[in-house]
Amino acid sequence: MRTEWGRAKSMGGMSIQPVYTYLLVLLSIVATLGVQGFRYERVWTPLERHYFGAYSASQIVGVVRDNGWYTLLQVVTRKGSRLALDNDVVPVVAQSGENTFALTDQALKHGAMRLEFHGTYCNNSEMHTYLGSWIYQNQTLMDLVRPALWAGLVLFFAGLLPATYLDRKRSIPLRYGKKPSGPNLANVAKHNPTHRFRGFGLVNGKRTMLDRLFRLRKKLPVPPSKENPPVLVPVEPAPQEPVRRAAPNAGIDRGSPASRTRQESAPQEQPPSQETELEHAVKPTTRRFFE
Question: Which one, out of 39, 158, 246, 256, has a CA that is 20 to 30 A from the CA of 118?
Fold first, then answer.
């Protein structure tokens, strides 16, 4: 019986694919097509753009069959007709919006009369050689697309190392799982960023006029520590002694007739504030929460 320790190499779920490498390949293809399109519009001559289909077809189709139909642009002169070259034509736009060619001033001076399209049925290999000699200056199809291919390859090899690193970095969590996280790997501020306990402070309630004017508070901070844990223990207030009230007629002898006569003759005038003074004589002591 064999027992394997540790986690499995495959966690299942999402497929582990080199996404960044695929993206790099796609960008390389797009860059190759972009460079080729730029060269097609800016570098190639008008006749190279016109005969590119016939030039490539004469090489590809020549493997399957020998002959084929081709349409050639010719310059008609008084002596006959010949294949139009780059010095003979200039691209123009017709009234119908179609792209066509017109004779240059140099061709008109040499006796050119007009341009005509002639269809011919000839051998594919001979047509490929004929167009390559007069139009493409003996350049093959690989020579025409080589600069664009080099641009795509340079971009691919330049981004291969970063793409491999990003794919490996992405595949590790998907294959083995993410790193463990918990209170041992994160501090209290990360788990509770809004409620932070920084201890408590003792504020002096008796402030001078200067402290009140500049809003100064003499506060003694008490940071939390082992001797001072962040636990608030309420303090119960001490029981207050009951207030003893004095008798209203204390110190007067009620038994003597003189005093009784005096009491009857004179109205009993007791100061109304005597009880109030006695009640406020002893004020209940107010205790703060942290005292």
Answer: 39
Measured CA angle at 113 (ends 112, 119), to 5 deg: 95
Residue-by-residue pLDDT tens, the chain, 291 positions: 555 555 555 444 556 789 999 999 999 999 999 999 999 999 999 999 999 999 999 998 888 888 999 999 999 998 889 999 999 999 998 888 888 899 999 999 988 999 999 999 999 999 999 999 999 999 999 999 999 999 999 999 999 999 999 999 888 877 776 665 555 555 555 555 555 555 556 666 666 676 667 666 666 566 666 555 555 555 566 666 665 655 555 444 455 444 454 445 445 555 554 455 544 544 555 555 444
Residue 219, φ and ψ in degrees, nearest 5: -110, 130
Identify whether residues 206 and 143 lie together within a single domain: no
Q: 120 and 214: one domain?
A: no
- What total number of domains does the chain contain? 2
Residues in the chain: 291
In-domain check, residue 170: no
* Any domain includes 188: no
Which domain range does residue 117 map to? 19-155
